[in-house]
């Protein structure tokens, strides 16, 4: 029997299958943006072939099919979604257009932020004519100052139906404290237009901050039809091929749920989350508590952390949950930051500064890098890899894709080398160096902004390009050790296959110190009940659920809160306010530094609370068999790491042929059909018992 995971990336669609003995099989195929199901099936065909089966035989033996998708992301970025109608409290119809002042900057890279004169807020996903103000009002205490009448609810819904909307989003002021009005609108919409999907803010984002809450529900309605349609088509196609269980959809907050229960907005960005969850599992096997996760894909470089054994959520440090395609949102999300620095990222000549710039634009999978020979004309990082000898031209994608090295060199010469008066090799080295510094800088910024000490962390590197660069950017960033992860090229898909079922419940609860502890206990009890109901509908018994509890706290007068984990609600009753304050101040000092203790004279404010639930799936062991004999290099390849030394003869080891604990002096390549691990000159790597190549940076520092 198999656990299967799928990760649909911007360039490739990756699949993995794990059997009961822990044997792992991989598949890879180009992503097909115009019809993503086709790319998934092509990758599954490659996977089945590598596992010694055909697709129907593989799927008939599959007990869990996890899937991380970019369908919602693509619909959002390309704005190919539904015609959304918005029901909002009368007088607040301009909320999607006004946004907040930070809306001009949200989601932009540092490079993009420099163009202040030309920056604009993103155009809302809902047209002004498709917004209906609803005469109702709830105050900040949850009291209905202006009750919503049934006739008013029907009038507002009919106004949207007259605009021929394809989905309805509902976001009323303070509705998370009194959901009755949103529920009445939902009932009315489903009665008058049962064919239309309805998204409610009280279900998707029951938290204060109406702009982010409004964006969340609009995005859910906008991408809902596309996401649900795709997942339905995929389920049907897989069922016809022999799959029995439901597709388990990866969610952006770090777990899977049955696809027909998944909220569309929570699938956005779910692919990179798979890598974080795979890192969490691997970290436990390696007994590593603090891990920086780095994913170098075809389009982006993604950074996150496992801190004290757990993934962190965006809300834990910044109150708000994050940004989707330049829109602030309030749905829970694993805290991942991305920059445009992947294998397909374009390097270009900036005439103003007469220098090479790197990113953020990408060539994607179509047309891809120049050496693909698919019409790509702009130089990418992957073209630099090929020119410098880091890629094996005979084994790219297992030899199924022919590469055009001459075209890559010609493009490098024309676009970068000639304008700067340098050689092609010098230009290619500059592109790789730029990428390494962009990546290491992204790591430093990520940890620094969250008050985390990089010296306390090791680093995992995965994605198709992670093991190619991590020996360099891990050294530049200052981590203790870098793990070039086994099966890095499909590690996000592996994380999806290993992910547990997860649900979250959260609520806004406003209070000032001292808190009503009995009220806190009752609120937690209500959240736990709703959480258990979510698991029950998927057949999970209560005793199989591991729960985590959080309080969202801040000092009085502050704008944003920190999410503080507590053992359980009974702990509150036993520890009282001193325990709550102590836990908060410990987290506050960790994030903002020791000097922040000066704020400790301030009273605390409670903003909300939450409960996370996880039902763990049985997981096969990932430990691999040891080779029978000591491995020797399979071949040698000419590669260049430094202009002064030029090209040198570098040993190439076949993936899977190395003994655990075997030391590999650099420079060296360890490769398979889909990725290459690079150990730099003056470095020494060691193969561990799980197939990871470990570079100890502390041994190289004085």
Computed Rg: 26 Å
Low-confidence stretches: none
- Oligomerization category of the chains in this entry: single chain
Q: Tell me, what's the shape? A: globular
Q: What's the β-strand tally?
A: 33
Looking at the structure, the CATH topology of the domain at 501-615 is: Dna Ligase, domain 1
The number of helical elements comes to 19
Query: Helicity range of the residues?
Result: 25-40%
Gap between N and C termini, in Å?
50 Å
Strand content bin: 25-35%
Based on the structure given, which CATH architecture of the domain at 501-615 is correct?
A: 2-Layer Sandwich
- Strand-pairing-aware structural class: alpha+beta
Average pLDDT score: 90
The main pleated sheet reads as: 9 strands, mixed
CATH first level of the domain at 501-615: Alpha Beta
Describe the structure.
This protein is α+β, with helices and mostly antiparallel strands and 702 residues long. Among the domains are: 83-196, no CATH class; 345-435, no CATH class; 501-615, Dna Ligase, domain 1, CATH 3.30.1490. 34% of the residues lie in helices and 26% in strands. The strands form eight sheets. Strands 13, 14, 15, 18, 21, 22, 29, 32 and 33 form a nine-stranded mixed sheet that branches. A hairpin with a 6-residue loop joins strand 24 and strand 25. Helix 6 packs across helix 7 and helix 18 (517-536) crosses helix 19 (569-592).
């Amino acid at each position: 029997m198999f656990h299967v995971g799928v990760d649909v990336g911007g360039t490739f669609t990756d699949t993995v299958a794990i059997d009961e003995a822990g044997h792992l099989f991989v598949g890879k195929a180009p992503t097909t943006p115009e019809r993503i199901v086709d790319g998934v099936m092509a990758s599954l065909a490659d996977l089945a072939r590598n596992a010694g089966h055909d697709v129907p035989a593989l799927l008939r033996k599959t007990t869990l099919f996890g899937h991380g998708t970019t369908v919602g992301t693509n619909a959002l970025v390309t704005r190919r979604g539904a015609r959304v109608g918005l029901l909002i409290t009368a007088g607040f119809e301009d909320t999607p257009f006004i946004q907040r002042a930070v809306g001009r900057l949200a989601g932009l890279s540092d490079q993009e932020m420099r163009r202040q004169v030309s920056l604009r807020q993103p155009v809302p996903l809902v047209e002004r004519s498709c917004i209906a103000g609803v005469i109702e009002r709830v105050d900040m205490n949850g009291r209905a100052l202006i009750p919503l009448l049934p006739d008013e609810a029907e009038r507002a819904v009919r106004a949207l139906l007259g605009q021929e909307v394809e989905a309805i989003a509902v976001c009323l002021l303070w509705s998370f404290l009194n959901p009755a009005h949103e529920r009445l609108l939902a009932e009315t919409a489903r009665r008058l237009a049962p064919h239309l999907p309805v998204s409610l803010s009280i279900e998707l984002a029951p938290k204060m901050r109406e702009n982010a809450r409004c964006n969340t529900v609009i995005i859910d309605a906008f991408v809902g039809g596309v996401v649900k349609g795709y997942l339905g088509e995929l389920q049907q196609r897989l069922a016809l091929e022999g799959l029995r269980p439901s597709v388990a959809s990866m969610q952006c907050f770090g777990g899977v749920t049955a696809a027909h229960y998944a909220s569309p907005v929570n699938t956005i960005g779910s692919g990179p989350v798979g890598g974080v969850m795979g890192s969490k599992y691997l970290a436990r096997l390696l007994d590593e508590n603090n891990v920086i996760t780095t994913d170098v894909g075809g389009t982006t470089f993604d950074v996150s952390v496992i801190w004290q054994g757990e993934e962190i959520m965006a809300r834990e440090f910044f109150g708000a949950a994050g940004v989707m395609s330049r829109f602030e949102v309030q749905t829970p999300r694993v805290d991942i930051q991305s920059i445009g620095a992947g294998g397909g990222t374009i390097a270009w000549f900036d005439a103003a500064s007469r220098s090479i710039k790197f990113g953020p634009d990408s060539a994607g999978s179509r047309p891809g890098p120049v050496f693909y020979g698919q019409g790509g004309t702009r130089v990418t990082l992957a073209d630099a890899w090929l020119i410098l000898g880091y890629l094996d031209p005979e084994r790219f994608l297992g030899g199924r894709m022919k590469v055009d090295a001459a075209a890559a060199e010609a493009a490098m010469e024309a676009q970068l080398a000639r304008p700067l008066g340098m050689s092609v090799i010098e230009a290619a080295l500059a592109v790789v160096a730029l990428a390494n510094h962009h990546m290491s800088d992204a790591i430093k910024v990520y940890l620094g902004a969250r008050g985390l000490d990089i010296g306390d962390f090791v680093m995992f590197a995965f994605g198709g390009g992670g093991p190619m660069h991590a020996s360099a950017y891990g050294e530049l960033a200052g981590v203790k050790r870098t793990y070039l992860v086994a099966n890095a090229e499909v590690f996000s898909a592996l994380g999806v296959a290993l992910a547990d079922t997860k649900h979250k419940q959260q609520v806004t609860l406003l209070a000032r110190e001292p808190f009503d502890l009995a009220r806190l206990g009752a609120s937690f009890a209500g959240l736990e009940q709703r959480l258990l109901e979510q698991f029950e509908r998927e057949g999970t018994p209560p005793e199989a659920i591991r729960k985590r509890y959080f309080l969202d706290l801040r000092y009085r007068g502050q704008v944003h809160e920190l999410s503080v984990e507590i053992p359980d609600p009974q702990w509150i009753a036993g520890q009282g306010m001193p325990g709550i304050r102590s836990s908060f101040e410990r987290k506050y000092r960790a994030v903002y530094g020791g000097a922040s203790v000066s704020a400790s004279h301030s009273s605390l404010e409670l903003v909300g609370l939450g409960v996370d639930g996880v039902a763990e799936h049985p997981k096969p062991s990932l430990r691999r068999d040891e080779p029978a004999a000591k491995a020797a290099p399979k071949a040698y390849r000419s590669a260049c790491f430094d202009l002064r030394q030029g090209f040198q003869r570098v040993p190439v080891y076949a993936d899977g042929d190395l003994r655990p604990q075997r030391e590999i002096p650099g420079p060296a390549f360890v490769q398979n059909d889909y990725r290459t691990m690079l150990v730099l000159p003056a470095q020494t790597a060691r193969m561990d018992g799980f197939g990871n190549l470990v570079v100890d940076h502390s041994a190289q520092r004085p």
